[in-house]
Amino acid sequence: MDVILFLVFAIIAVVSAVNVVVQTHPISSAISLIGVMGSLAVLYLLLGAEFIAAAQVIVYAGAVMVLFIFVILLLNAGAETKGGRSFMVQLLGVPLLIALLGLLAFFVQRFFPRGTMVHFGGFTGGTAQAVGRALFTTYLLPFEVTSLLILIAILGAVVLARKEID
Amino acid sequence: MSEVPISWFLTLSAVIFALGVAGFLFRRNIITVFMSIELMLNAVNLTFVTFSYQLKQVNGHLFTFFVMVVAAAEAAVGLAIILTIFKNRSTLHIDDIDSMKN
Amino acid sequence: MNAFIIISLIKALVVAFVLLTAVAYLQWVERKVIAHIQVRMGPYRVGPHGLLQPLADVIKLITEEDLVPPYVNKPLYLFAPFLAVCMALLSIAVIPFGPTINVAGYSTWMQLTDLNIGVLYILAASSMGVYGIALAGWASNNKYALLGGLRSSAQMISYELPMALAIASPLLLSNTLSLRELVGKQAGGILHWNLLPQIVAFFIFLIAAFAETNRVPFDLPEAENELVAGFHVEYSSMKFASFFMAEYLNMVTVSAMGTLLFLGGWDAPWSPQYGANLIPSIIFAISGLTALYHAGHPARKMDKYTFPAFGILFLIVAGVFLLPIVQSWLLPLFWFCAKTGAILFAFIWVRGTLPRFRYDQLMAFAWKFLFPVAMLNLLVTSFLVAWFS
After folding, report:
1. Ramachandran area for residue A46 (φ above 0: left; ψ -120 to 50: alpha; else beta)
2. Domains identified in chain C, total number
3. Which pTM was predicted?
4. Radius of gyration (Cα) for chain A, nearest Å?
5. Above 0.95 for ipTM, yes or no?
6. Would the CB atoms of B11 and A14 count as touching at under 8 Å?
7. Which of C80, C159, C270, C311 has the fewest CB atoms nearer than 10 Å to its CB?
8. CB of B16 closer than 8 Å to CB of B46
9. Interface contacts (A, C; CB < 8 Å)
10. Architecture of domain A2-78+85-126
């Protein structure tokens, strides 16, 4: 059952990721990226990371991607025109990419042959209580620093996107 | 056979990361390049959570949390920069933003 | 394992069917209430007092010409209403309607599933609901739809922040994210509910809920007379109905969330030993007797038959509430529906009363007033919780 879940959502993730890279219109890439994030959220649930799965959907798929889609809708970016690539690059590009991915997969499998087996419910320490406790005790300094980082990001975005007052 | 070997998760993460790198290097539209960066960050998140499962600790989840926060802040500022570039140059093609070339 | 699957399927079918019927009749209630606020009658002809009006609307919407304009982005155009309804229905999956129910030896919760991150799940489903509107606005290839879609998504994500902070404050008091445990910790009557300690958060939640569901006074994105119906201008028949269903389902979800977080879920306002179990029977008996009294001298001809029928129906329902065999699950269900219905009535009441905000007023209200107040409320709550524990 867990294997079926993993395979289904891993295939959806990989196909959507390929779609992000391959599609010409940015909005199709954005929707495929939302698909990647959704399927990764399911994989996080399989790994017992329930708070991170919810945070992934709320923050990443529900806010960051909305921001992306906003910008794409506002700028009315059209489909990208095919760049001038040499014939050799077009011929060898995809096969070399597949070879690279195959090599990566092979080496990862070789380094972690008989590791732990993942099943749903194997790790129960990913609850909101556990994450919150660790966040506010061990990781308090990074927490405060990231809140400052968000403040800087808000200021930067507001200043950059402001209309010039002539 | 209702258990998944942990190397499968790491393989998936490596594959998604490689696809993100490919998108980052090969695409010419700024927004698609930015989305490839988000793809890479997601792959790294999956790796963190996977190792957190293996070591049975919650610290990996905390790292993922911080990566998400940083990615959100970066998306906000990056998209504001993209808007400014579009306002000044009316193009989203990376190759057209070359006024600092010799 | 087998029984679990069958029971879950039955529960899912029952909840889906009841919910969709409730959404259709919610529209009837809205039209009648707004009509009476505006001193007119509302739907009256189709069935007694317009009760078959939702059926007539459904038939009309299904048999309308399903027009797909030639210049739209077809995949997204067809996908967007489906996404909106999907996310609206998904968020109902974790809402508990009552305690356990025992039927034919099987005991089960009155809830489809109880996640231990239930509150986060509902926030996630409502965050994903933004996409239905944004993509619909863009796919329609129409400047009014695009403007409506953009404004609506900006409004929804802006008001998600005060709503999340307003949800976080009673969670500090109840210390759990699971919706069933949330109700359990508020048991014991009106003084134990999260309403009195968190009254500011309750109002912030209500205001943010109005904005999240695109209801008046925040309904500029779908304003009928200002944006040519906004993001759903190019949609017809069932896809248009899907957007409306999604809006009403979202209303039901946020009202249910308000009930669970602040009003104690299915808890009676005072304990049963002081007669709280008789309240539903009393309410229905009074309604039945009023209907029977007005049947004596009806104002219109048809009421000579409908008023006695309704009177007898209400008296039968009042009698059903007195049977001890159904009281264990019917009374908590009644209280849950009564509280959710009260919040829904507030939604409809506000729609009939207030004008709508201009868009910049709306956004300024969210970022400059509601968000700081919600943060302040969270800060004060956390200080008080840390002080007294």
Report:
1. alpha
2. 1
3. 0.91
4. 21
5. no
6. no
7. C270
8. yes
9. 61
10. Up-down Bundle (1.20)
